[in-house]
């Protein structure tokens, strides 16, 4: 049984309700240290260790490295959060409903925020990293984002493409949550 631990970054330093997918927003240093301390005691030795290069994940990866000398993060852009294009940095409530509805109508292929990533483009990117993990046969940990974790949950169920928005997982992924995926 091969295991993949998915660790979400801590609370970010921006206004609540901001769209910050691919934006390089820092996380709370204090929360990153607290999450790292908790995760350091839960992660086994001998893991391949990867992190999104976005600051909020890099902070957590560095905090884990400081506590666990056996962990040395490799930064992988494939496990960065989805790019929401022109919506990045805006309050979700300020995005015109018509723009959001246009994206939802073609959820699989339309670029989020008009200039960002499509859902299936995102699934392909994360799927490449997931496939590499599966092929490695090694246990691994990823410091990543809620969107990536949801994508991995779908990939683990055999879902490679998401054609409609109502097929996207609605499961809440808490800040600092550690999710375990096991594959045979």
What layout of secondary structure does this protein have?
Elements: E1 2-8, H1 29-42, E2 48-51, H2 55-67, E3 74-75, H3 97-105, H4 119-136, E4 140-144, H5 146-156, E5 178-183
Parallel strand pairs: 1-4, 2-3, 2-4
Antiparallel strand pairs: 1-5
Compact description:
This protein has 184 residues and is α/β, with parallel strands linked by helices. The protein is built from 5 helices and 5 strands; from the N terminus they run βαβαβααβαβ.
Could you explain the architecture of this structure?
Strands 3-2-4-1-5 form a 5-stranded mixed sheet. The mean pLDDT is 97. The protein contains 5 helices and 5 strands. The chain has 184 residues and is an alpha/beta fold. Helix 1 (29-42) crosses helix 2 (55-67).
Which structural traits does this protein have?
184 residues; five-stranded mixed β-sheet; 5 strands; alpha/beta; 35% helix
Low-confidence stretches: none
Compute the average pLDDT. 97
What's the alpha carbon Rg, rounded to whole Å?
16 Å
| DSSP, total strands | 5
Question: Cα distance, first to last residue?
Answer: 5 Å
Side by side, the strands of the main sheet go: 3-2-4-1-5
- Indicate the proportion of strand residues: 5-15%
Based on secondary structure, the structural category is alpha/beta
N-to-C order of helices and strands: EHEHEHHEHE
What share of the residues lie within helices?
25-40%
Total number of helical segments?
A: 5
* Overall geometric form: globular
Largest sheet: 5 strands, mixed
